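Quarterly update from the structural biology core.
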Amino acid sequence: MIESVGKKRYILWGLAAAGLSMMALLICFLALRVYPFGEHSVLTNDGYVQYVDYFRYLKEVMSGNAEIGYSFSKSLGGSLIALFGYYLASPLNLLLYVIPIEKIEFFVFTITVLKVGLCGFTFSVFIRHRLENLRPAFALILSLAYAFTQYNVGQLSNVFWLDGVYMLPLILWGIWRYVSEKKKGMLYVSIALSILFNWYTGYMNCLFAVFYFIYEQVLWNYEHGILTFKRTAGQFVRFCILELLGVLLSCALFLPVVFGQSSGRGALDSGIFSFGTNGSFLDIFRGFMIGTPNIGLPFKDDTITLFCGVFLLICGIAYFSYREIKPFHKICMAVLIGVMVLSEFIQPLEHIWCGFKFEDSFQFRFAYITIFTVIFAAARGMERFEHVGEKLFLKICGGCIAAALIFDLLRPFNSTALWIQNGLLIFYGLVIWLYFRKENLRKLCLMAVGLVFYAEILANGYWVASENYQKPAGAYEAYSAGQEKLTAAIKNYDQAPFYRMEQNENRDRKPYDHSFFSNESLAYGYSGIQQYSSSYDKKTADFIHWSGYCKVEFPSLYHEPILTSDSLLGVKYLMSSKDYEGFEKIADFTECNGKSVYVNPYALGLGFGVAEQALENIEAGNQIEVATIAADNPFEFQNKMFSALLDEDMRVYTPVSAEAVYDEASEQMYFTLPSVDEESVVYGYTRSALDDIPMFINEKFSGNYWNIWGASGVYSVGASKDVQNPEVRRVRFDVKDIDAEVIREAVIAKRKLEAGAGSDTVNIPEPWIDSVFYKLNMDVFEQVIQRLRENEFQTEIFTDGFVTGNYTASEDGWLMLTIPNDGGWEISVNGETVSARDGINTFMTIPVKAGQNRVELTYHPKGIRTGIILSVGSVIIFAGWIFTERRKDRNR
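Predicted structure, tokenized:
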């Protein structure tokens, strides 16, 4: 009965922590006027750019209109299991089943608030079980610090990472139960669930679990007088086996995710072990200041943030100052904190925590673990709060004030933050003095500490989140209503089983700007080209880059149509506010979101017969950050591509000589083009080490040129008949706002690349902006399209993961489908299983016989069967382990 009452108290205090954590977030949203309390959207940063479209897709999956295993709405087609395992596997996403898609902002708001509450609840459960002598009021303060800490507030846009935050205390509670009671179930299950809910933070939690186990086991052995290397090593091995079994339990989903992720960013980034640091070592101590920026920023910032409350800072320092605590305990705690802090400070260690990857945005993605160690040290300090006396606390408060003032002299803090921090130190010092001097005021002092601490985390939360929420509430839902109407109208207009459609103006994109909102094909259920997620397919992304749509493989963007590439890929419809050569406007469609619908009369079907030469590797451009045009020319790649498809030299594009002049007086770079025949369309392609340069085509502003990440690729200079004076057709780059030193370094970089050496003293006559221009030979292009159409595949069924159709061949040969060949397809031709090869480096190319060929394709995500076997095997091994141990215990 007593044990039952104790459990109820733990749950009630956990619910109190959850409720107060959620209330804190609601108060912050109210103060910031964030939905549903004001005009600012809860969708921000990548939550607005990417994740909201994934949620719409998940809603379609729940409605039975889409598949997770494979989707033709993911760029040119691909498995979505890796994307699901990273972005969408949280159990709270099941709320989408009951929330209408029109209320997507309400859904994001709801799961964000609930996840913050779960963080408070799980930490409360952990800390109450781990430190049984801890005052409930202190446990509540600690839980609020963990739930509403710098990381959680800063990462609200990356709401799927919060699953790792609320799962971490459950894993650590499982470790404590394993160490102290030899109970394995909690740890075994929590490891698996953390990976299932989000494999990325699950990986971080599993990695930290190793360090935390060593901390707990070493201290346990030390306190029981059994600390030996041999014993501890054996215990560590058994723990690793248990953790591995937990990982294997998750493999029914995790293994397919690994296979899916390996097709994109799976390989280790090169250079991750090159030594470097994030800021200076002294800057680490600046991270304890209230309102310290960094976490949650969509760009790199070396500021390490450790703030979790001024009162916790005092108690954490007190823990290391208690004379009664054995030095060995302090050393173990210092090592645990030190490992995590150094992991943020030393860049190679940071990259290991991030999955052996560089991460240039939302830095310190594992910072919640580092902050946990600081909070845990504070908890150990609070555990002995009663036995210290006010003198030590007053010394700590005074020392912290002095340290803050010294650091401010070295490099100034925000003055408001500095004085708030010092004011809090003074307040907590006075309250602690009263607590020990006036016993009758102790409850009142604790209440004062709790209220001020709550106000403190609210102020910090407001400070950290204040710049994140700038989008207008309701804007996404208004846009999505129009976009859904437009895409549905196209589907009703053309009910053919296969075609692709695209748009060059996604939401939030101005007519002459860049856009990363590249997942709308997933959101609105159509087949397209572009895609932006960390779970991409490299083979597909490479082809999109080589074809000229964008300058890098990640993300795959579609800034404007390229008639040849669009036609090859079957892009039949274009949603745009601008006219493009080769696309014909359809008057039947009502304009939505400022976009009309255009048809591409040259668009090919899903497949067509190709020459055997298409199976040979086509040399393509590279993606080094400073690349010459010669090394990365999309026009020459397309010439090679079409020639290989037909086994004949097809010069679809031919170069146009342009006169390049740099006008030093006006600081303009001009490329003047000669006149060409009236029917030709001229395209350009630019490479430069410069970035964000205003570009003008025929004296019309065409947007700012971007260099690498997010940069547009091929751009249209227009057809001769559309240019008022072909003799003055030109492309102009305005570099007057570019720093001269930046220009100088850009040219040096170019010369080093081209000549293998460079001089820092060389005189730089002009900025480096390399451009090439090609004309599209319409007669050759039309001939290519006609010949490919003569041998087209007749598509009957084209649904996610399943395709059927017929192809008539005049002789034995090859049928190429513009579906990326990723190895997961089961292919049959006339009932016989065949294997596909890569056509033009990318696409599924199938051997066919002369005559009629019935083709059927079924997709099977890689790793599912093996993953299920591993999960079942894990359960069997774990059950056998438990059974064996219990049998031994009964026989003793």
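Confidence is low (pLDDT under 50) at residues 622-627, 756-766.
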